[in-house]
Design goal:
The chain has a single domain, classed as Nucleotidyltransferase, domain 5. Helix content is 39%, strand content 19%.
Length: 118
């Protein structure tokens, strides 16, 4: 198995390990984060109803500029605003197999500053 395939496999294993523990409810939906090489997206998901309550991505957004950490901060603040309009105050954080470090941490800190509790 080559290096890239092993990296993808390890990410999938971490993601399944996280999702085995983290689940969103109606009272506390799940804030799911996806980080690719060029973009960042976040969703607030109610897993009991299988409904996405709010979502934001940097794809096609001119307001999201700068390096990836600055884009992550922008996504965190925007998802907090959209979650507030959907009447969501508390969430559980799903880092999606990524380490809680760098871009993921910047997004989480910006969402907390925007008013989300997790």
């Amino acid at each position: 198995m080559n290096r890239i395939a092993q990296t993808v496999k390890n990410l999938a294993r971490r993601k399944h390990r996280v999702r085995a523990v983290v689940s969103g409810t109606t009272e506390r939906p799940r804030l799911s984060v996806f980080v690719s090489n060029r973009h960042i997206s976040a969703q607030v998901i109610d897993d009991t109803k299988h409904v996405t309550l709010a979502q934001i991505s940097t794809v096609g957004q001119k307001a999201a500029s700068g390096n990836m950490t600055e884009r992550a901060e922008w996504v965190g603040s925007e998802i907090a605003k959209r979650a507030k309009t959907a009447k969501v105050r508390q969430v559980v954080f799903d880092r999606g197999g990524q380490l809680y470090h760098g871009r993921v941490k910047a997004l989480a800190d910006a969402a907390r500053a925007g008013g989300l509790e997790f």
